[in-house]
Amino acid sequence: MIKIVTDSTCDLPSGWLARLNITVVPVNIQFGAETFREGFDISPAAFYQRINSTGALPTTSQPSVGEYCQIYEQLAADGSDILSVHLTSQLSGTWQTATLAARQLSGTARITVIDSHTGSVGLGLMVREAAQLVAAGLTVEQIAPRLEARRSQIFVAILLKDLRYARMSGRVGRVRETFASLLNVQPIIGVDSGALIPLDRVRGQHRGFERMVSLAEAAVGRRPVHLAVAHAVCQPQAEALLELVAARLNCRDTFIADLATSLAVHFGPGAVGFAAYPAE
User: How many CB atoms lie within 10 A of CB 59?
Assistant: First the structure.
């Protein structure tokens, strides 16, 4: 048997993680002296309310090695293999922490840890494929290289509503520096080898959506893709983006999910983007 583990930056529609039998390790969100487990102890509404009331961003931190060890030991107790797929190591130490835990348990559990080189719905799509491959009877040795091959094929574009959160965040430095001197623009951010990169800047959401779709068309062409849209408390905008991009890419299926709050810390409310994930 193979059991799949991921972290709480993995964005899928409500109920999918449970249906796919995925174990989620929560990222820690800290408001001052208070620490909350993402997806367990604080809702997105409460998260944004706290930011608005305090005017300050929380900090985030990856789960500890001990937390991973405890979860891995529980899952491996029946002899199962573990496939652990996580947020890009360019944004978080989550993958490194999971890797350290796997090494500590190397004599007692079979654990394979993968750096997804992405996050949010990109990670969600990768985790979903992992679950589908497990259900199809593939082994970890067969699944891991397939997922790793996907990493350079995923197209990601994110449109920020404004620069306020990016300026306050310390983890999107290259993007912040590129756009710091610009006013009244909405940056479009992409992902390259797991790192956030500036793709373009636009004035107005409609232009932003059109530009993101054009970039996606250039990147994936007419290849079949799974398409997923993520948003930070802007469902109508996410639906409009999905309609536009689904009409112009060769989509096998689509869905919309809320952006993980631990990622919204860096992008801000109003951020909306999508991942085009290869279907073949």
Answer: 14
Single out the residue of 143, 272, 279 nearest to residue 206, CA to CA.
272
- Name the residue with tokens 């593939």: 138
> Count of residues for the chain?
280
If you search the block for the tokens 């709480």, which residue do you land on? Answer: 8
Q: pLDDT, tens digit, for every residue of 226-252? A: 999 999 989 999 999 999 999 999 999
Contacts of 38 (CB under 8 A, 6+ apart): 8, 9, 26, 27, 28, 29, 60, 260, 261, 262
Beta strands in 72-224 (DSSP E): 81-86, 111-115, 155-159, 186-192, 195-202
Distance separating alpha carbons of residues 226 and 250, to the nearest angstrom: 9
In whole angstroms, how far apart are CA 74 and each of 69, 71, 78?
9, 5, 8
Residue with tokens 């992008």: 267
DSSP 195: E
- Give 172-184 as a DSSP string: -HHHHHHHTT--S
Look up residue 73 and give its two tokens. 């030991």
Task: Round to whole Å and give the CA distance between 92 and 96.
Answer: 8
Residue-wise over 27-43: b if at least 16 C-beta within 10 A, else e? Answer: bbbebeeeebbbbeebe
User: Using CA atoms, how far apart are residues 274 and 256, in angstroms rounded to an integer?
Assistant: 9
Alpha helices in 77-119 (DSSP H): 94-104
What's the pLDDT tens digit per position in 42-94? 888 888 888 888 777 888 888 999 999 999 999 999 999 999 999 999 988 99
Contacts of 222 (CB under 8 A, 6+ apart): 250
pLDDT at 41 over 70: yes
Contact assessment for residue 83 and residue 5, using Cβ atoms and an 8 Å cutoff: yes
CA atoms of 115 and 99, how far apart (whole Å) = 10
